[in-house]
Structure formats: structure tokens, C-alpha cells
Amino acid sequence: MDPTVPDKLPTHLAIIMDGNGRWAQQRMLKRIVGHQRGAETVKMVVEQASLLGIKYLTLFAFSSENWSRPAIEVRALMTLLKKYIRQETARMMRKNIRYNVIGNRGELPDDVNQTLDVAIRETAGNTGMVLTLALSYGGRQELSMAATRLTRDVLAGKLSADDITVDLFGTYLDTGGLPDPDFLIRTSGEMRISNFLLWQLAYTELYFTDINWPDFTINEFLKALNDFQSRERRFGKTSDQLNKGN
Ligand code: FPP
Q1: Best of 17, 37, 46 to mutate for ligand 1, by most ligand atoms within 8 A of CB?
Q2: What is d(CA 107, CA 206) in angstroms, rounded to the nearest whole number?
């Protein structure tokens, strides 16, 4: 039976899109073919998430650690990314989706940054879903950069060390302005966070599926969202307190 459309959706959905390489290797194909097929899954998930009314979708597209992959794969991924963004911007406009990027953009090739700048500028006025691409992103790197920026502001006298709270710290992260993810999906059977959104995932519900990203279908997506619907999010409280509404 096909899964139904859930009525309780995450406001912010984050996804670790894993298993492109294994999908390709299992079929004796080059790893980049797996990434190309993965980009088709990205199109489906973006479209469905926006149709369902999910407000924020964050995709782990390239990690700080992915730079150490073979140069040929890195180059192919950068080319794929550029092509995807160029091709999809018109659809983002039609669907009222806004592009956002987190991660160390200084490490990305100039042509990728230029493509991102155009896409971000063109979609800046869109008021629907915010699609955040995590590129050259690492959670520890983000936290240490935030600490550097915060220290600079303290040293410049803009704030005092005693002003630093959880909320203030959050504004120094790349995700400042985005709510924390409610739900994280990771494909391919790996049960790790892999340096993704370390601060922001503190109370996120986690979902792991054995399906490789290129094989992640609409039905698998709905199955994951239905699983989210059944989770009780207590944020450290008891069930009893939640049921009584306090
Ligand atoms: C993980 O699979 C995936 C990546 C490192 C890159 C993700 C990229 C895409 C889904 C395609 C392009 C992205 C966009 C936004 C258009 P893996 O290579 O680590 O797989 P493996 O663990 O099986 O080797």
C-alpha cells in the first residue's frame, strides 16, 4: 500500500544524501553516474517538499571532508552542481523557492560561486520554501568560525563575554535565521551524523534508511515523513507534561 500524505510535517527537514557511489558501483557504473542519478532525486525531493508545504529544506551536498576525494570526482561534482543550479533556477522561480547556501564558500571554485550568487540573487524575493545547500560544509568548522567571529566582536567591544547565550551563539552560525531541523533523513544505511549541523541537530528526530540516495523515491520520502508524524518530541520534558500542555 502506498504511504499517505502525512498531516504533521517537519517545518525544517535536513537530508544527508548518501549512497550515490555505492549505487553506481553495484551497477558497474562510474561513481559520477551515481551523483547524476542523485541529482534527479534532489529534483524530486525539492519539488515534493515544496508541494507539501515544508518551509525549510537543507541538503548536505558537499562536505568539508569531500575535498579529499579523487580530483576527478570533485571536479565532476562541482560541474554537476553548477549545471543543476543553472537548470533549476527557473523552476525555483515558478515554485517560489529561495536558494540559500551554508558552508565555506571561499573554498568553492569561482565559477560555482558565481552561479550560486546569480541563483541566490534571482530567488531572493521568493517567499516559499527556503532550499539551503550545505557546500564545503562541516559542523565543527562552522562552530569554530562562529567562535572566531564572536571573539572578534567581544574584543571590538560590541558585546561582553557575559552576553553569550545559546540564542546569541546560534546567530553566529551559518544557519543564523533558520530554525533548527525537526527531522533528519540519512540514506544508504549509515547511522552517523558525519559532521552535519552538529549544533542544530540537538533535538532533531533522526531517520535512517538502507535505500541509496538515487533509489530514494516519492514513496520512500512519504514513508519517512509518516515516521516523523509518529514521533513524540519531548525536548527534555515528560510525556505527561506534554499531554497537559505545559
Ligand atoms: C554521498 O554519496 C553524496 C555526495 C558526497 C554528494 C551529494 C550530491 C548529489 C546528491 C548530487 C548533486 C547535488 C545537488 C544538490 C544537485 P557518496 O558518494 O558518499 O556515496 P557512497 O558513500 O556510496 O560512496
Answers
A1: 17
A2: 29
Residue 145 has pLDDT above 70, yes or no: yes
What pLDDT shows up at residue 41?
98
CATH of 12-138+181-234, one of 3.40.190.80, 3.40.1180.10, 3.40.50.300, 3.40.50.720: 3.40.1180.10
Mean pLDDT of the chain: 96
83 neighbors 111 (Cβ within 8 angstroms): no
Q: Does the annotation mark 18 as catalytic?
A: yes
User: Distance from the CA of 66 to the center of ligand 1, in angstroms?
Assistant: 10
Of 2, 18, 153, 180, which is the active-site residue? 18
Domain borders along the chain are: 12-138+181-234
Cα–Cα distance measured from residue 88 to residue 170, given in angstroms and rounded to the nearest whole number: 30
In whole angstroms, give the CA distance from residue 189 to residue 153.
Answer: 42
Count Cβ atoms within 10 A of the Cβ of residue 19 and give its class: 0-12 exposed, 13-18 middle, 19 or more buried: buried
User: Ligand 1 atom 1: the closest Cα is on which residue?
Assistant: 18
Mean pLDDT on 47-62: 98
pLDDT at 238 over 90: no
**104 catalytically annotated:** no
Q: How many CA atoms lie within 13 A of 154 on its CB side?
A: 14
Q: Pick the residue with more confidence: 7 or 151?
A: 151
Torsion region of 50: left, alpha or beta (phi above 0 gives left; psi -120 to 50 gives alpha) = alpha
Q: Name 102's bridge partners.
A: 134
pTM (whole model) above 0.85: yes
| Whether pLDDT at 86 is above 80 | yes
